[in-house]
UniProtKB/TrEMBL annotation:
It holds the Pfam family HECT_2. PANTHER family: E3 UBIQUITIN-PROTEIN LIGASE E3D, E3 UBIQUITIN-PROTEIN LIGASE E3D FAMILY MEMBER. GO terms for molecular function: cyclin binding; ubiquitin conjugating enzyme binding; ubiquitin protein ligase activity. One of its GO terms (cellular component) is ubiquitin ligase complex. This is HECT-like ubiquitin-conjugating enzyme (E2)-binding protein. GO terms for biological process: proteasome-mediated ubiquitin-dependent protein catabolic process; protein autoubiquitination; protein monoubiquitination; protein polyubiquitination.
Length: 526
């Protein structure tokens, strides 16, 4: 026994290079008291090469010791070579009295451990005392961002890539951009009658558009973006579609001069032509055949005939709605990071906005199309994953340090599937509307950690499980996904970056576990 222990110790010192080629990936499911390990490299067939496989736990060091006799060829078979791997065990409540189950498969070694409690149990969370790890896995909460920014006194925004300051002066006024359709919400509360309570709902809608219109000094926050006026940004000159630099003019958003905006309207692509240029021609004259505005008094049976003054103030206010405010009401200026099909209009084009110093992508701004191809509201939507509130990225003072492109997309994807009960999502290019890739959510309640096996000389460190979403990924040429529950739109640059992230994440599993029904099995951090 002593000779075997000495041999194992010697082999661990001699095979440190071999250990570096072995990857471990831990996985656990929500509400399940089990922990599974995938251990693999690119060359070894454990079923053939790993003889006398043995797995044991070193509880005091939170490590798993995996040993076997290596037999790669006939010559090596005559010489006994013991290979040992040390795998760190995540911070979990392990049932040490339960046996360790393991088996050698064609391309990996699989180990199963029994837990006293599932990894997402509140008691397990209390054991996680590592501040940095807890902070990294903390959920992305917009309420926290709003509160923290408001308490900072004054905030500058910086490019995360080059630390270039983006804002001219400190921002003091922060507000949350509502993520729901206020016109529908107002109608649900007060009804759609054109007088009395119906008038109240329309007044709410008008006040909403005035309150959440982009203006200098105001910072509007959504789950993924920061909306700033171009006047608050350094060296910010918005360009037309053709590249001509123009100063934003409020007159570009032409107002509707006749009638009232139709309550409850939501433009679909089928009648999008009727909303082009806000129902107006190039010269700003209202096209009666195309305008979305109607005179309620002309509607038969409308109670405005009985109460001519009940809705007069609402009509006067709604006459002032400019094109950018109409687009805001119809949901076309909502969160651009990942837009649903109902929030995309062919009359609004999103143009990417880059850092003036390093040209790294920062966000996007809306522009009209055709003859109205100019910036719509003079605002720029900066993605939280590309900016920081500190000149040094990652500092504790950086409010957006937890935001990454991957986490933002995953959170929006899961939220989308909750709202619509959708799990099959087609992702399209926001600009060209062409398909980019398909995503199928397999399991949004998975926890995982991955890395390379360490040598004996290296001190063990606490390993933490991170929340991930298991997904099926396929390109748009694949026929795997035949049913689409939801279409979402993102900018092409972010789409290409996500494709690379998802493809690389699939390498954290052995090849036999990387495909399901012809699609790539991967994961995304939540």
């Amino acid at each position: 026994m002593k000779n075997r222990s000495r041999a194992i110790s010697n082999s661990m010192e001699q095979n440190s290079k071999t250990q570096r080629t072995w990857r471990y990936t831990w996985e656990a499911q929500s509400h399940s008291p089990n922990l599974r390990l995938f251990l693999f490299d690119s060359k070894t067939n454990p079923k053939i090469h790993c003889k006398s496989l043995n797995v044991s736990t070193i509880v005091g060091k939170s490590q798993l010791l995996v040993t076997w006799i290596n037999e790669e060829d006939e010559e090596a078979a005559s010489k006994e070579e013991i290979v040992s791997l040390l795998v760190p065990i995540p911070r979990v409540l392990l049932d040490t009295e339960s046996p360790v189950n393991f088996k050698a498969l064609d391309d990996h070694i699989e180990v199963r451990l029994v837990l006293l409690l599932p990894v997402d149990h509140p008691l397990v969370s209390d054991f996680n005392l590592v501040t940095d790890s807890r902070e990294k896995s903390a959920p992305l909460v917009m309420g926290y961002d709003l509160k923290t920014l408001s308490l900072m006194g004054g905030v500058h925004f910086y490019c995360r890539s080059c630390s270039n300051r983006l804002t001219k002066k400190e921002l003091l006024d922060f507000s949350e951009m509502p993520s729901i359709n206020w016109r529908e919400s107002a109608d649900n509360w007060f009804g759609t009658c054109c007088c009395s309570f119906g008038g109240i709902s329309e007044k709410m809608v008008v006040k909403y558009t005035n309150s959440y219109t982009c203006s200098s000094g105001l910072c509007l926050l959504s789950a993924t973006t920061v909306l700033l006026s171009k006047d608050d940004l350094v060296e910010c000159i918005l360009s037309e579609k053709g590249g001509t630099e123009v100063e934003f003019e409020s007159s570009l958003a032409l107002s509707c001069d006749v009638g009232v905006v139709e309550p409850g309207s939501r433009i679909s692509e089928g009648n999008a032509e009727s909303h082009e240029s806000g129902g107006e021609n190039v010269c700003g004259q209202v096209d009666e055949s195309k305008t979305r505005c109607i005179d309620k008094a002309s509607l038969p049976g409308c109670c405005v005939h009985d109460s001519p003054d009940s809705n007069e103030s609402v009509q006067l206010e709604e006459k002032k709605l400019t094109l950018d405010k109409k687009f805001l009401l119809d949901g076309f200026l909502e969160d651009v990071f990942m837009a649903k099909a109902s929030n995309v209009s062919k009359n609004v084009e999103w143009i990417e906005f880059a850092c003036p110093e390093c040209s790294s992508p920062l966000g996007a701004y809306p522009s009209g199309v055709g003859s109205n191809g100019k910036p719509i509201d003079g605002g720029v939507r900066l993605f939280k994953c590309y900016i920081s509130t500190s000149s040094t990225t990652g500092e504790s003072s950086d409010v957006f340090r937890k935001y990454t492109l991957e986490r933002m997309f995953t959170n929006q994807l899961v939220e989308c599937s909750k709202e619509e009960l959708s799990f099959h999502v087609l992702v399209k290019d926001l600009t060209t509307k062409s398909p980019l890739f398909n995503i199928v959510i397999l399991n949004p309640n998975t926890f995982s950690s991955t890395g390379l096996c360490s040598s004996q000389d290296e001190p063990g460190s606490a390993l933490e499980l991170s929340a991930i979403v298991k997904v099926l990924f396929s390109d748009c040429n694949s026929s795997v996904v035949k049913k689409i529950d939801e279409e979402v739109y993102i900018l092409k640059g972010q789409g290409e970056e996500l494709i690379e992230l998802i493809t690389n994440a699939s390498k954290f599993l052995p090849s036999s576990c990387s495909y399901l029904q012809g699609a790539l099995v991967s994961s995304m951090h939540l």
